[in-house]
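Dear U.,

For the methods section draft, I wanted the exact inputs and outputs in one place so we can describe them consistently. I've listed the two proteins in the order they'll appear in the manuscript figures. Please don't edit the token lines directly; just add comments below if something needs changing.

First protein:
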Amino acid sequence: MTTLHELIHESASSQERALSGMGRPSLHGRAKRKRAARQARIAAGATMGAGALAVGGALAVPAIWPQNTIAIATLAPAGGSSLPLAADGSLLSAIPANDVVVDVYLDPMCPICSQFSTKYDAKLREIDGATVVYHPVSILDSASSDGSYSTRAASAIDEVAAGAPDRVGAFLNHLWANQPAEGSTLTDDQLVSLATAAGVPSDVSALFAQHRYANAVAKATRDATAAGLVGVPTIYIDGTVFNPTAGRAWDDLVPRIRADVADRQVMGLSQLSGPTNVPASVSATAPVSDAPSARHTP
């Protein structure tokens, strides 16, 4: 039986092969990956300064891991787990027809993902006529002290989506608020405590330690990397990547989505079946309905 760490190693090797195949620098080896993350953090620090970013401040440009080395605007939406959330943070069973679809790729270990989500998640989900779809990936496992935090936390997110779909948004909020620093981690028991604080039933969080969705997370990460995902957070609007304006970071995102919603209404697109370029991974049913067949241990 494949262990969790064997699964993570296999996934990391697959990511490296995908990146190399697209002409990107190889990120093989823990030391090199840590260096890349540190360089990205230093670059972000030039914008953010020391410590966590204040809510009212501007966010750094995304793609902290690996560093973006190509024009990401040419990429198609990546694959992976799809978690469409309502304004209250509950999992939607279907994406409303004709909604503008906003795909957000994130890693539980990514500090800029945390800053982005803290500042913008609620605003994005409140836009009438748009649906935000979250895609947890695990490209920062090596930044945690146990080498598995991204995968374990993403698996826990999927577990909540499967067993307590009305608590997904609340659980994400607690993950961001208690995100471990690089070189540290949270245990499965600590993830359970965060889930409890988020209102997740104990029979659901008790499954975290089984890492039942680790395989699904690894596949989502491989699919996203193979499709061209090179950094997190990355946001697509109806299948087209959103590139932050220099000096404004993400501040143009909400107005851009609102404008797209208004344009769709003005052009009479409400009579159509919906966006034609929604990622294939976004389905009309709950995204984590396929229960894993195997258990994995650290």
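Second protein (the one for the lower panel):
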Amino acid sequence: METILRFGYRWATSSWKFISLLNPPKLGLYYYALGDEQKALQALHKALFIAPEHVSAIIHICKIYLSPPCPGVDELDPDRVELAAGLLSDLTNGDGWDVPEAWYYLAKAAKMQGRVEKERECLICALRLAEVTRVREISDAVGWSL
């Protein structure tokens, strides 16, 4: 039984990696969930190489950059915070202007930089967008039966 479970785990992880070659952001999230920050960042950077304006990949990279490296450590690398702030600033001025998460993480980066007014502006934008953003399209939720 143990051999079957081990084989099933290897098959699942190898097929997941194969499938995710077509979708690097999902592979990045997979590695991040496993706690492997380096592999997660590599996969997300690969997604940006393929599609430089990939909104989800940028947001997840910045989420990693703005999170503590290990539990119990509150100090972050200022270069990573600066990089995340730059990526998010470009994103919110471009394709990600309507993504509440992008504004939220930009506010978080601004707070870490000590820019209180910018933090407040970004949180207001995030809140306004979150109030009007639907979870998913109504046609996806109920289909064309209406």
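Candidate sentences for the figure legend, describing the second protein: The chain has two domains: 1-52, 72-134. The helical segments are 2-20, 24-34, 37-50, 55-65, 78-92, 100-113, 116-132, 138-142.

Thanks,
Y.
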